[in-house]
Design a protein that fits this description.
seven-stranded mixed sheet, six-stranded parallel sheet, 13 strands, binds NADPH dihydro-nicotinamide-adenine-dinucleotide phosphate, binds N-acetyl-L-glutamyl 5-phosphate
């Protein structure tokens, strides 16, 4: 049987390069590579998109929409890393661990939207609790999320790595202060909550790694679980998942570094707190489970390969 042909549109970008790195050594697919000088040539992109069985779109939103419009056959399947299609009709949200039968759901999907990085952290904690009816749908949830600067793509990387960067780039920066961050629609839709979270991301002077934290008053959760019990509930939910795990509960104070899982495709949840209040912190790599690792995981499921992604577990 011939190998599936895979093309990365946007292969010179931050996410595209990381997907390429994960796929370059694979023998179960044929990677179609565009001449770097032609990476924005519409005719050449169209040719490769239509030759491919599966295309990764690692492009700005508008270019991703344009790329989908270049498909002229009923065969080419798509994984879009951008924000463009995450709540669009006809697109499957590419978060396998949230499906009962990921191999079936992703295996049958033609158009898959890869989750946003902050949304990945938020949903990993919140979506299971809503689906298990522990977190009421009308809970007024809040979230903050730390990210390395590679989350902003080539432009932000250049800013942070410039020799004459401003003093403010040496310190964490809160952004999304209008409370209209582009991940809010997917956070609300996929979690099943009635309202989006009050959410502020924070970008800091390190390359990659995330720590996304959500906050709970336990008495408003169904069954009023303690922090320790909440940890056990999530641990059971994610039992046997190769990419998502829950750290053992500890009462010891801890510093949760946002870069602990950098360089892997894994995500780890830590539940902290006591009887009255709990926080759940998701740590992962914005370029791993937050983008390219998740994209490769989705590809594997779509093409009937193993569920795992490409980098160190
Ligand atoms: N970085 C991250 O952690 C995450 C990123 N994403 C999303 O993934 C997508 C890609 O992001 P990222 O890799 O960070 O961005 P980058 O800016 O690093 O890369 C984007 C790439 O797309 C290329 N490009 C831009 N316009 C076109 C076009 N019209 N045709 C072909 N190529 C084009 C750029 O070319 P050139 O090289 O000339 O600039 C660049 O190589 C975005 O939608 C982003 O929101 C999602 C999750 C996390
Ligand atoms: C540091 C930084 O700017 N990060 C990006 C998120 C990157 C991401 O998740 O990607 P999408 O753009 O595909 O949603 C932001 O908050 O807009």
């Amino acid at each position: 049987m011939s190998k599936p042909k895979v093309f990365i549109d946007g292969q010179e970008g931050t996410t595209g390069l990381q997907i390429h790195e994960r796929l370059a050594g694979r023998e179960d697919i044929e990677l179609l590579v565009i001449d770097p000088d032609k990476r924005k040539d519409l005719t050449e992109r169209k040719r490769l998109i239509n030759e491919a069985d599966l295309v990764f779109l690692c492009l700005p939103d508008a270019a991703a929409v344009e790329a989908v419009g270049l498909i002229e056959n009923s065969r080419t399947r798509v994984i879009d890393a951008s924000t463009a299609h995450r709540t669009a009709p006809g697109w499957v949200y590419g978060f396998p661990e949230l499906y009962k039968d990921p191999a079936q759901t992703l295996g049958a999907a033609r158009f898959v939207a890869n989750p946003g990085c902050h949304a990945t952290g938020f949903l990993s904690a919140v979506a299971p609790l809503v689906s298990m009816r522990i977190l009421p749908k009308d809970y007024p949830i809040t979230c903050f999320s730390l990210t390395g600067y590679s989350g902003g793509g080539k432009k932000m990387i250049a800013q942070y790595e410039s020799q004459d960067k401003g003093e403010e780039l040496y310190s964490p920066r809160v952004y999304g202060t209008t409370l209209k961050h582009k991940h809010l629609p997917e956070m609300q839709r996929i979690s099943g909550l009635d309202n989006p979270p009050v959410f502020t991301p924070v970008v800091d002077d390190y390359y990659k790694g995330m720590a996304t934290t959500v906050f709970f008053h336990n008495r408003y959760l169904v069954g009023q679980p303690t922090a320790k019990e909440l940890g056990l509930i999530l641990m059971t939910y994610y039992a046997n998942q190769p990419l998502i795990s829950v750290a053992p509960y500890s009462e010891e104070p801890a510093y949760l570094a946002a870069n602990t899982l950098a360089g892997t495709d894994r995500l780890e949840l830590t539940v902290s707190g006591h009887e009255g209040q709990a926080i759940v912190t998701a740590r992962f790599d914005n370029l791993g489970k937050g983008a390219s690792g998740a994209a490769v995981q989705n590809m594997n499921l779509m093409l009937g390969f193993e569920m795992t992604a490409g980098l160190a577990l």
